[in-house]
Amino acid sequence: MSSKPLKQIHLAAHFPGVNNTTVWSDPEAGSHIEFSSFAHFARTAERAKFDFLFLAEGLRLREQGGHIYDLDVVGRPDTFTILAALAAVTEHLGLAGTINSTFNEPYEVARQFASLDHLSGGRSAWNVVTSWDAFTGENFRRGGFLPQEERYSRAKEFLATAGELLDAWHGDEIVADQASGVFLRDAKAGSFVHTGQHFDIHGQFDVPRSPQGRPVIFQAGDSEEGREFAAAGADAIFSRYAALDTGQAFYADVKGRLAKYGRRSDQLLILPAATFVLGDTDADAEERARHVRRAQVSGATALKHLEFVWNRDLSSYDPEGPLPDVDPDVGDDHISKGRAQVRMYRDPLATAREWRELAAANNWSIRDLVIHTGNRQTFVGSPATVARTINEFVQADASDGFILVPHITPGGLDEFADTVVPLLQEQGVFRTEYEGPTLRHHLGLAHPDDERAERAAS
């Protein structure tokens, strides 16, 4: 009986952006604005043969109790600008960015991604997200315009419309002339017409077909609508399930939705975000992880996190003291604006009861509770232990790989690249060289034109 072939692991790197992830107080912590930080991070990821670098996007600084949320990064440059600049200092690394479908237009976004794909030689990726809150929308003319229940409807049509624009140059409509550059063979090349519920546009798309045809599409929703949206048209979906059992359940659920859209299991990758702490030994790593976690969750951070659930000003409470006796305010006016943190907890009253019981049973302060119930490190151990665990997760179909989020920028990825990656390469589950020029090559995804030809032939 032949054994199941080993899956190849996909690894990517996420440049973090808030200090409940990063440790700002560490002497090695660097800038989140200077280009040298992004360049160092990207070069490390490429040296380690990672698939791509990922940048999230915030369209408005959060507020807490009417004040700027002081745990956010202020002044990070625009995502497209950073990715375009990184294209010039890397050769193989994929360049993925979050771009909102609620407050942008398909023509503009399609043009930007097609341009990035040309500039990078076929390495662009788009994390399609939605936003329903009017607070963020106040920065745009559509502020408060889109009801929450319509956000996926608009996102689906947005993605489809952008795809139509990118495909407007499909086929043999252009030829290259070395003297004068690229010119049209057919005057209709690039022409588009789209009439739908959210968009009614027609015209000429002015960026020729890019190396990938269209960017690799990522999706991050975990709701029923989000999973279905990813199954219908995404190339990869982010996941927050980093435990083996929950990861396997999510993996099976999403992959199981693909067949009804005429898609195979290998046409959608499952990539959870993952943090890590390494040490010379497992015990050393565990000790370092405890230190890192306490540095990530300062007293001020703990109170801010508790306010997401309590929906009250808790600044008068001692973070090293007991949890509040007062219950959460379940009203619609949330103390946290700009990022729906409170909605992470569907039933704040039940969450408060559970947390009080945990704190009482373990003699935890507010800070202790947040440290233990918040996002803890996914992989902790020696390089050999972390490499083995990552491989076990992937081979057990809990994921297709991981998007790593270090707690130090820009150098926090260096140790992983130098110690864990070589072990994965020795096991034959991670590349030693890039096998193709585009991000689709790295991820094992077919070119859209090839997929179109395959569907036509079937």
UniProtKB/TrEMBL annotation:
Belongs to the NtaA/SnaA/DszA monooxygenase family. CDD domains: Nitrilotriacetate_monoxgenase. It comes from Streptomyces mangrovisoli. Signal peptide: none annotated. GO terms for molecular function: monooxygenase activity; oxidoreductase activity, acting on paired donors, with incorporation or reduction of molecular oxygen. Keywords: Flavoprotein, FMN, Monooxygenase, Oxidoreductase. FMN binds at residues 98, 152, 223. Residues 25-396 form the Luciferase-like domain. This is F420-dependent methylene-tetrahydromethanopterin reductase. The keyword Hydrolase does not apply. InterPro entries: Diverse_substr_monoxygenases, Luciferase-like_dom, Luciferase-like_sf, NTA_MOA. The keyword Phosphoprotein does not apply. Gene3D superfamilies: Luciferase-like domain. Transmembrane segments: none annotated.
